[in-house]
Specification:
By secondary structure, the protein is an alpha/beta fold. Helix content is about 30%, strand content about 25%.
Length: about 260
């Protein structure tokens, strides 16, 4: 069953501190949904709950109908792929070997070795890391590691993709390329749920946005419904103005000097 991600009244507490309260949201097949909000709003915590990496204190998160907190990691790994903000950690392995790790959940499946190789090669080509194939990950820049991590996620071939700031270390060209890649991946039948700090990238490529504020959902909707000047100014404590993008059919967020 491929019914995407459903989060129902999610709460998450660490001791007396509440990081998430009554968060409900969903992301369906074919959608790219962005999680936005200021530092400390609960974005990473929410994504980790969706991935099954954290068990919610209250509520329930499901991935394709599976309870994310009680399903085994091996079973989840064929339904969802999760990438943290650094892409891949510093290690001495070659890039191609790291990308090939995305095929680990299928090691017992009846798949020919050359098919695995083709999937790995295609993922590397799509993320512009083929030329780094024999480089050690430890020799790469942060942005290159981020793209290697994305290649590993694509090689995993899951219907649900969870990403924590996938463009944070990328130059402008690679930011746009990665967002177009994620957009096309969703259009081809996947669910993409991504934490995004760049509101204009989110506006240009996401179907819907979830704006978090202090562990709660402030607003959910299309970019035009969420990216409203007064709301953003209040949530981010920074004056903002939102206008129509001159070349794209989406809002454009501008920061303003203090009055």
């Amino acid at each position: 069953m491929n019914d995407g991600i459903k989060m129902e009244r999610i709460g998450y507490r660490v001791g007396a501190r509440s990081l998430l309260e009554e968060v409900s949201m969903s992301a369906a097949i074919g959608e790219m949904v962005g999680i936005v909000g200021p530092n400390g709003a609960g974005k990473t915590t929410l994504l980790r709950v969706a991935a099954g990496d954290l068990s919610p204190s209250t509520g329930k998160a499901t991935v394709n109908g599976l309870d994310a907190s009680s399903t085994t990691v091996m079973k989840l790994s064929t339904h969802r792929a999760y990438l943290g903000p650094q892409g891949v950690t510093d290690n001495p392995f070659a890039v191609r070997d790291v990308v090939a790790m995305g095929r680990h959940p299928y090691r017992r499946a009846q798949i020919a070795p050359n098919e695995h190789d083709e999937i790995v090669g295609a993922a590397m080509e799509r993320t512009d890391v083929s030329h780094l194939a024999h480089r050690a990950v430890s020799s790469l820049s942060t942005g290159e590691r981020q793209r290697v991590g994305l290649a590993r996620i694509l090689a995993q071939q899951t219907p649900v993709i969870l990403l924590d700031e996938p463009t944070s270390a990328l130059d402008i060209g690679h930011q746009e390329a990665v967002m177009r890649l994620l957009r096309s991946t969703a259009d081809q039948g996947a669910v993409v749920l991504a934490i995004l700090h760049d509101l204009n990238l989110a506006a240009a490529h996401a179907d819907r946005l979830v704006l978090l504020e202090q562990g709660r959902v402030r607003v959910v909707g299309t970019p035009a419904e969420v990216l409203v000047g007064d709301i953003l100014t209040d949530v981010y404590r920074q004056r903002m103005r939102v206008i129509d993008h001159p070349d794209r059919d989406c809002p454009l967020v501008l920061t303003l000097d203090d009055a």
